[in-house]
Amino acid sequence: MVSVTGHPFGVASTADGEWSFVSKLSGEVAVIADRGREPRVVQEIALPGDTLLGDALTHDGRYLVVADGSGAAILSVSRAERGGPHTVLGQLSASGPSSNFALQSAIEVATSPDDRFVFVSLESANEIAVFNIRRALASGFHRSALVGTIPLGLGVVGMAISPDGNWLYATSEVASTQTRHGTISVINIRRAETRPRHSVVASVAAGCDPVRTAVSPDGKVVWVTARESNSLLAFSASRLRTDPQHALLANVRVGTAPVGLALLRDGARIVVADSNRFAAPGQSAELTVIDTRAALAHKSAVIGAIPAGTFPREISVDVSHKRLLVTNFGSNQLEVVDTSHLP
After folding, report:
1. How many CB atoms neighbour CB 198 within 10 A?
2. Smaller CB count within 10 Å for the chain: N or C?
3. Rounded to 5 degrees, what are φ and ψ at 189?
4. Cα(314)–Cα(163) distance, rounded to whole angstroms?
């Protein structure tokens, strides 16, 4: 365990596994050096916003995008690694002087495969904001980079992009005020980059309070954690677009209040962070390890559990070191899990 004060939320690791960045509720990004036996915090970068949540690296590794306010802060990765000045390059914002409070609810971020666009889920505004990051960088953040917003259900949170870069999958905790179930939605990325309000292809029920999603490396399966159902759901990616009512492939019972998830071993394993967010009596937080092939075959799929700190939230895969980095939000820790010995 690595101590990270300020309630760590998001975590993103560089492709070479030498650096990780932890965004914290307290408004800083912790820079973690992973080059030794144990990761260590080498500096903290204060951002303009008061609350930082999810984060992600652009695919070229040049920028760190951190959910902040009504959009995201953009940081230079090279400057962050060197500890240099002017690490924070600018801010993406979906709000103006007359914007309502709901817009100030950025929670997760995703970047398009070509790194031209950033998608930010605005939980309380029930939509995803789409930004042209190249426009923002080229203008020194003096021009608005907002393309528009994608309206979805209530409580938009988790997002994942398909390996071919064509589809964005997003969770809404509740479909509407008339139902209890949430949804997983399919968004056409090319349409979202030009006409975001007309980019939703389909939405389908996904248990109670679905909060995170991940896509298998082959793009065929979309995995969703349904927090209040204590379940991990699997959907056919193709059926989500063509026959959404018959897209559900599997429903795996996991621990209490699952949130983060990560795929390992080319999609053969998935690890789910059972947060036990609301401290259910007799329950504990842990990481559940699942055999995805068994799950899709409707066989017993849970193959083990790993102890976690208080409220494990997000998971980053460090392929080069064969380990997972997990933010334990409640106990102010970054948990390091060796994956080489997982069954």
Report:
1. 11
2. C
3. -65, -45
4. 20
DSSP per residue, 127-166: EEEEEEHHHHHHTTT-S--EEEEEE-SEEEEEEEE-TTSS
pLDDT digits (tens, 9 = 90+) for 51-65: 779 999 999 999 999
Return all residues near 134 (Cβ < 8 A) that are at least 6 apart: 115, 116
If you write DSSP's letter for every residue of 218-285 in order, what string do you get?
TS-EEEEEEGGGTEEEEEEHHHHHH-GGG-EEEEEE-SSSEEEEEEEGGGTEEEEEE--TT--TT---
Per-residue pLDDT at 51: 79
**Whether the Cβ atoms of residue 168 and residue 161 lie closer than 8 Å to each other:** yes
How far CA 307 is from CA of 252, 255, 285, 310, 318, in Å, comes to 19, 12, 7, 10, 19
pLDDT tens per residue across span 328-340: 999 999 999 999 8
